[in-house]
Amino acid sequence: MPSSASASVHSSPLHLHLRLQLSHQAPRLAALPFSRALPLPLRLRIPRPLLPTFPLALSHGGGGDNDDGDNNKGGGGGGDGEGNGNDGDAPDGRSEALFVLAQMGRKLESLPSDLAAAVESGLITGEIVRRFVEMEGSALLRWLLQFRGFRERLLADDLFLAKLAMECGVGVIAKILSSLFMKCNTVVPADSTQVMAIVADFMLVYLPAPTVSLQSPLAKNAGHIANFFHNCPDNAFQIALAGRSYSLLQRLGAILRNGAKLFTVGTSASLIGTGVTNALIKARKAVDKGLDDEVEDIPVLSTSVAYGVYMAVSSNLRYQILAGVIEQRMLDPLLHNHKLLLSALCFAVRTGNTFLGSLLWVDYARWVGVQKVQEEA
After folding, report:
1. In whole angstroms, what is the distance from residue 318 CA to residue 307 CA?
2. Residue 346 in contact with residue 331, Cβ under 8 Å?
3. Around Cβ 237, how many Cβ atoms within 10 Å?
4. pLDDT tens sequence across 103-128
5. Distance CA 178, CA 342 (A)
6. Residue 78: left if φ>0, alpha if ψ -120 to 50, beta else—which one?
7. DSSP code of 76?
8. What is the H or E stretch that residue 66 is in?
């Protein structure tokens, strides 16, 4: 009995001690009910800012509008192939463009179809949309914006029209002055030179100018070569917009493609210019017999081919570097907010480039044998 009593005495304090520990830990667990003391859903529910102007810019007609709020793959058919490739950039660019469009009181359906498709795909920034709406305030620019070629170039460079006027005006004068400076008797007289200069200089500014690409995708059955040149930029050195990128091969393809176009333009312009000049020479000889020995007929075919090759190589490279590197990458970032000074520098650079090209043409034409050096008495 004493042993059992002693055992019970020794065991009871241990039993009481354990129960005190359990009762001591239980209130600690119950004192921190996180789910009741801290209502996390109410504390973290931050409302997102809503932009009520977005729906004002959206088109209310046509299919595909039901999904505009959730996925940005472009309303209407035919845009799935382009939209899927830029899913990461489309929402931001599209929202920015729509926001600017709504700020200016315009709807998406008021834009040209190719520009509206580019906005839906997120390939057009808000700055380009703003530039388009502001240009429509001018009657001349509004008329030119109806043509896709001018629209792509004016949206990429708001001074494109001024550069076009600079080049065509300076081109004629520079070619005449360079001929006098070299003291040579050109095979192509001044009248045909002016005709060639106006046509050629227009295309020398138009073709290599940086653009905002708005062209629609080719058909699925198009060949690999057609697809390759279709995806090349218009200027080999131009800055790619958000959502687009050009490989080195595509930029080289831009030089090759523009070279082929400029060869056709140069050859055709020279054929027209030399043909008109030969007709004028024959008319003068019929009136004045003394001109038979002083004025010679122009070799039409050789001069035209030589001029086409010159434009495809020398003019192509010079104008691509001028528009894509000197103007877009160097002058425009520095003087973007000083349009008058930027225009003056562009005029100076283009005048120097045109005069240099005229000197190079004289040397090249003399080298290939289509131009004769004046013999001093």
Report:
1. 15
2. yes
3. 20
4. 999 999 999 999 999 898 888 889 99
5. 26
6. left
7. S
8. none
Counting beta carbons within 10 angstroms of the beta carbon of residue 80, is it exposed (0 to 12), middle (13 to 18) or buried (19 or more)?
A: exposed
C-alpha torsion 40→43→47→48, nearest 10: -70
165, 239, 256, 328, 356 from 342: Cα distances, Å? 15, 18, 30, 11, 21
Residue 373 carries which DSSP code? E
The residue type of 192 is S
Q: 3-class SS at 74?
A: coil
Query: pTM to 2 decimals?
Result: 0.70
Question: Would you say the C-alpha torsion 65, 69, 74, 80 has a positive or negative sign?
Answer: negative
Residue 185 has pLDDT above 60, yes or no: no
Token duo for residue 210:
């940086």
Indicate the Cα dihedral angle 322, 154, 204, 214, nearest 10°: 100
Give yes or no for a contact between 301 and 351, defined as CB atoms under 8 angstroms apart.
Answer: no
What is d(CA 51, CA 28) in angstroms, rounded to the nearest whole number?
A: 48
- Structure tokens of 81? 């192939």
Q: Residue 210 contacts by C-beta under 8 Å, 6 or more apart in sequence?
A: 153, 156, 157, 233, 234, 235, 238, 239, 323, 324, 328
Per-residue burial over 262-279, b if 16 or more Cβ lie within 10 Å, else e, is: bbebbbbbbbebbeebee
